Amino acid sequence: MKFLTFVKSRENQGMPPAALMEAITALGVEGTKKGVLVSTGGLMPSAAGATIRLSADGAMAVKDGPFAESREVVGGWAVYDCPSKAEAIQYCKDFLALHHTHWKGWEGEVELRQIMEFPGSSLP
Question: Is the pLDDT at 123 greater than 80, yes or no?
Answer without folding.
Answer: no
